[in-house]
UniProtKB/TrEMBL annotation, chain A:
Pfam families: Fer4_11 (PF13247). The keyword 4Fe-4S applies. The keyword Iron applies. This is Fe-S-cluster-containing hydrogenase component 1. GO terms for molecular function: 4 iron, 4 sulfur cluster binding; metal ion binding. Residues 196-225 form the 4Fe-4S ferredoxin-type domain. InterPro entries: 4Fe4S_Fe-S-bd, 4Fe4S_Fe_S_CS, ET_IronSulfur_Cluster-Binding, TAT_signal. It comes from Rhodopirellula islandica. Keywords: 4Fe-4S, Iron, Iron-sulfur, Metal-binding.
UniProtKB/TrEMBL annotation, chain B:
This is Polysulfide reductase NrfD. NCBIfam families: DsrP (NF045798). One of its GO terms (cellular component) is plasma membrane. It comes from the Bacteria. It is a multi-pass membrane protein. The chain crosses the membrane at residues 30-51, 71-97, 104-125, 145-173, 185-206, 226-245, 265-287, 307-327, 339-364, 384-403. It is found in: Cell membrane. Its main location: membrane. The keyword RNA-binding does not apply. Keywords: Cell membrane, Membrane, Transmembrane, Transmembrane helix. Belongs to the NrfD family. InterPro entries: DsrP-like, Electron_transfer_protein, NrfD-like. It comes from Rhodopirellula islandica.
Length: 317, 412
C-alpha cells in the first residue's frame, strides 16, 4: 500500500488513490497474471484426460426418471457401445421395470447359514464388480454364539467353517421402507421403486457419499477407481439400474439382482448358496414360500431400533 | 481514472469500484508479493493434485467404503465454523452498539467470505463426479429439498456468501463514492447475517447428527458444540489477523476490538470445554457399544490408535489456551505474543477436534463394526493445503481492498 500515503483527496471524492506510472505497473501485473493463468492451466491439465472419458451426451444426460422412451434407448445404446469400447465385451443393457403387484423381500435362515461365503463370490461376479478390490454387496459377519453385538464379530474371518462356537450373519442392502440413504441424497440420484428395491441412477450420482455415511448396514459402495473386469468375465446380462459396469466416482448398491428378479429369476446370491439358507419372494403373494416363513418362523430384523423398516429378514428354525 | 461523476449510474461505477479495488489490492511491498507468490505456488500444487484425483479416481485418497469422508469434509466442517465465528465481531458492533467494533467489523465479514469460498472448494474436492456439479443447481438439476440436509447446506452457505458479499461490497462502495452508507441498505442485512451465521453451523451439524446409524454423531449436543468451538476459532483467527494488520500497516483502533474478542473467547472456550466434558461423561459413564467410537478416539480400539495422539494434542491445546485466556494479563499490550500463541493453540485445537476428531471417529467402527483406520494420503494433504492457500489469498486481497476504509474509520 505504498500509494495510499499520498492519498489526500477530500472525502467527497473517491477515497481510492490514483496509481502512478500506471502503464509500467499494468504491464508487470499483466505479465504475472498471464504467467499465473498459464501455470494454472498446466496444473489442471490432467483434467483433459478425465474429460476424454466423458462424452458430451453423458454430461448432458438428464435424470433416469425424466428420460423419454427414445432418449432411454439412445442412452442404453451409448452405454452398450462404451462397454464394448472400454471393456471389449458385448453386453445387452435392459431397462427392467417393477412388476405391478410385487414387493420383493428377502429372508435368511441363521440356523442354516454356515458362513461359506459363496453368496459373496456370486454377487461379485454377477454384478460385474471391480476385480482388484474384490468388491461385493454382501458382507458375512462371523459372530460368537450368545451375542447379537456386531462389535464382537469379524468380517475378515478365515479357516474352516462353520466353527462350533460361532454363527454367521450375512448383511447386504436391507431395501428399507424408510431408507436413510434416499432421504440424504441431495440430487435424488437414489430412490425406492414400487417393488421395494432401492436403486441408483449411476449417471446422475455426483459421488458425495452422503448415502454411504447414512446407511446403517454398510450396504453402499463407492467406485474409488474405474472398475476393472476382464472381457471374458463380464456378465453380459445387464440392466440400467442394476449390474451394468458402473462409472468411476459414483455410489452403487445391491438391487436384489433386479435384472434377474424382475425377469422371474432368483438373486445370484440365493442360487449360489449351498445350504439353502436364503429365501426370496413376493410378500404380496399369499401363497409364496417367503410369506409362510415370515408368518411361521421366529423372525428378526437388524437394527430395528433405527426405524429403517428393512425388507430383509433373519429367522431361526 | 479520476473521480466518478456524481450522476454516473451504479451499473458502470460499481465495476469501476471493483476494478480499482482489485488493482490496489495487488499493489504492495516485496514481502506482500513474496507472500502472494508462495500462496499461488501452494495453490497450484493443490490444483494439480486435485486434477490428478479427478483423472485417476478417488483411489488416490486413503478414504475407503468404511471411512468414506476424510480430510476434505473435516476441513469443510471446520471452515464453516470459521465463517460462522466471524459473526462474533458483528454481534458486539450492531447488537451492543460498540462504536469501536463498527470500524473493524468488516474484517470478520471478509473472513466469512474467504472461509465460505474454502468450504465450497472442499465440497467440490470431495465429489466423486465434480463434472456433475450442475445436478445440484436448483431449477436445472434435481434438488432434494427440503428432505436432504445437504441441500439445506448448499442454500445456507451460498446465502451467507451472498449476504456478506453484499454487506462488504456496499460499505466499501459507499466509501469509494465518498458517500455515507444508507443504513436501510445494510443494517437489515447485518441483522440477518447474525441469524444466518448461526444457521450455517446449525445446518452443518444437522448433516451429521441426523444420521441414526452413526451413534458418535447422533447427539443433540453436536450443534451447540459446533457453535461454541466456532466462536472460539473465528475470533482467534481474527485476533491474530488484527495483530498482524496493526504490525504491518500501522492502522490504529484495533486494540479495543482485540480486547473485546479476547473477552468473548474467555467465555466461549470454557463453554466448549464444558460441552466436551458433558459428552465424554455420557459416553464413558454409560458405556456399552455406544461408546466404541469415543473409545477409539481417546484410547484406541482393538489395538488401532491412529487418532489418539491427535485428540490428546487437541485436548492439551484447548486446555492450555483456556487457562491462558483466563489470565487477566492477556489483555495487556505487552503480552501480545502470548495472546497470539493462545489464539493459535485454540485455533489448532478446534481444527483437530472439529475436523479429524469429529469426522473420522464417526466412521470407526463402521456400521458393521469393522475397525478400518484412515490416515490422509499425500494427495489429500496437497489438495487441502492448496485450498487453504487459495482461501488465504482471497482473505489477503479482501483485507487489502478494505484497508483504505480501515485507515480512516467511517461514521456509519
Amino acid at each position: 500500500m505504498t500509494s495510499t500515503e499520498t492519498d489526500s483527496t477530500p472525502s467527497s471524492k473517491p477515497s481510492l488513490p490514483i496509481v502512478e506510472n500506471f502503464s509500467r505497473r499494468a504491464a508487470v501485473k499483466a505479465g504475472f497474471a498471464t504467467l499465473g493463468a498459464g501455470a494454472f492451466v498446466a496444473a489442471i491439465s490432467p483434467l483433459r484426460q478425465a474429460a476424454k472419458n466423458t462424452s458430451a451426451a453423458e454430461f448432458m444426460q438428464t435424470h433416469y426418471t425424466e428420460l423419454s422412451t427414445e432418449q432411454k434407448a439412445d442412452v442404453i445404446a451409448r452405454l452398450e457401445a462404451e462397454t464394448k469400447e472400454k471393456y471389449g465385451a458385448d453386453v445387452t443393457i435392459g431397462d427392467d421395470r417393477p412388476i405391478p403387484g410385487t414387493k420383493f423381500v428377502y429372508a435368511i435362515n441363521l440356523s442354516v447359514c454356515n458362513g461359506n461365503g459363496k453368496c459373496v463370490e456370486a454377487c461379485h461376479k454377477e454384478n460385474n464388480h471391480d476385480r482388484d478390490t474384490n468388491q461385493s454387496y454382501i458382507r458375512v459377519i462371523e459372530m460368537p454364539k450368545g451375542t447379537m453385538d456386531m462389535e464382537q464379530g469379524s468380517t475378515t474371518y478365515t479357516g474352516v467353517v462353520p466353527k462350533d462356537d460361532k454363527f454367521y450373519l450375512p448383511v447386504q442392502c436391507q431395501q428399507c421402507d424408510e431408507p436413510p440413504c434416499v432421504d440424504v441424497c441431495p440430487v435424488k440420484a437414489t430412490w425406492k421403486e414400487e417393488d421395494g428395491i432401492v436403486v441408483v441412477d449411476y449417471n446422475w450420482c455426483i459421488g458425495c457419499r452422503y448415502c454411504e455415511a447414512a446407511c446403517p448396514y454398510h450396504a453402499r459402495r463407492f467406485n474409488w477407481k474405474k472398475p476393472e473386469v476382464p472381457a471374458a468375465e463380464v456378465n453380459p446380462d445387464q440392466s440400467y439400474l442394476s449390474n451394468r459396469i458402473r462409472p468411476v466416482g459414483v455410489v452403487e448398491k445391491c438391487t436384489y439382482c433386479l435384472h434377474r428378479t424382475r425377469r422371474g429369476k432368483l438373486p445370484a446370491c440365493l442360487e449360489a448358496c449351498p445350504t439353502g439358507a436364503r429365501v426370496f419372494g413376493n410378500i404380496l403373494d399369499k401363497d409364496s414360500n417367503i410369506r409362510w416363513i415370515l408368518e411361521n418362523k421366529r423372525v428378526y430384523i437388524l437394527k430395528e431400533e433405527l426405524g429403517t423398516k428393512p425388507a430383509f429378514f433373519y429367522y431361526f428354525d | 481514472m479520476s473521480s466518478i461523476p456524481a450522476k454516473e449510474s451504479h451499473v458502470t461505477s460499481y465495476p469501476k469500484f471493483i476494478g480499482r479495488s482489485l488493482w490496489l489490492a495487488t499493489e504492495g511491498s516485496f514481502a506482500f508479493y513474496a507472500w502472494m507468490t508462495m500462496l499461488t505456488m501452494l495453490f497450484l500444487v493443490g490444483a494439480n493434485a486435485w486434477a490428478n484425483q479427478v483423472a485417476g479416481g478417488m483411489i488416490g485418497t486413503n478414504m475407503t467404503d468404511q471411512v468414506s469422508w476424510g480430510l476434505y469434509i473435516a476441513n469443510f466442517t471446520f471452515m464453516v465454523g470459521l465463517a460462522a465465528g466471524g459473526v462474533m465481531m458483528v454481534i458486539p458492533a450492531y447488537l451492543y452498539h460498540d462504536r469501536k467494533m463498527h470500524d473493524v467489523v468488516i474484517i470478520g465479514e471478509l473472513l466469512a467470505i474467504a472461509a465460505i469460498v474454502m468450504c465450497l472448494l472442499f465440497v467440490v474436492a470431495d465429489l466423486g463426479r465434480p463434472d456433475r456439479f450442475w445436478h445440484m443447481l436448483p431449477g436445472i438439476g434435481k434438488f432434494n429439498w427440503p428432505i436432504s440436509m445437504l441441500t439445506w447446506d448448499v442454500i445456507v452457505l451460498n446465502g451467507y456468501l451472498v449476504l456478506n458479499l453484499h454487506i462488504c461490497g456496499y460499505l466499501l462502495y459507499m466509501r469509494f463514492l465518498g458517500r455515507k452508507p444508507n443504513p436501510t441498505w445494510y443494517i437489515p442485512f447485518v441483522m440477518l447475517s447474525i441469524v444466518w451465521a448461526i444457521s450455517i453451523h446449525t445446518v452443518t451439524a444437522f448433516l451429521y447428527c441426523g444420521l441414526g446409524g452413526r451413534p458418535f454423531w447422533n447427539t443433540a449436543l453436536l450443534t451447540p458444540r459446533f457453535l461454541a468451538s466456532a466462536f472460539v476459532s473465528g475470533p482467534a483467527f481474527i485476533i491474530v489477523a488484527m495483530v498482524l494488520i496493526k504490525r504491518l500497516t500501522g492502522i490504529g483502533g484495533l486494540d479495543h476490538p482485540i480486547a473485546t474478542l479476547t473477552r468473548i473467547i474467555r467465555v466461549t472456550i470454557l463453554i466448549n470445554l464444558l460441552m466436551v466434558a458433558s459428552e465424554l461423561f455420557t459416553e464413558f459413564y454409560t458405556g456399552g457399544s455406544h461408546v466404541s467410537a469415543a473409545k477409539y478416539l481417546f484410547f484406541g480400539l482393538h489395538g488401532k490408535t491412529a487418532l489418539v495422539p491427535w485428540t490428546w494434542t487437541a485436548i492439551g491445546l484447548n486446555i492450555t489456551a483456556a487457562l491462558l485466556f483466563l489470565w487477566p494479563g492477556l489483555l495487556g499490550f505487552r503480552w501480545r505474543p502470548l495472546l497470539v500463541a493462545a489464539c493459535c493453540m485454540a485455533f489448532v485445537g478446534a481444527w483437530i477436534e472439529k475436523g479429524m476428531g469429529l469426522i473420522v471417529p464417526g466412521f470407526i467402527p463402521s456400521t458393521l463394526h469393522e475397525v478400518v483406520e484412515y490416515v490422509p494420503s499425500q494427495l489429500e494433504w496437497k489438495v487441502t493445503v492448496g485450498i487453504w492457500a487459495f482461501g488465504l489469498m482471497v482473505f489477503t486481497i479482501a483485507i487489502k481492498t478494505a484497508l483504505p476504509t480501515l485507515k480512516r474509520p467511517a461514521e456509519h
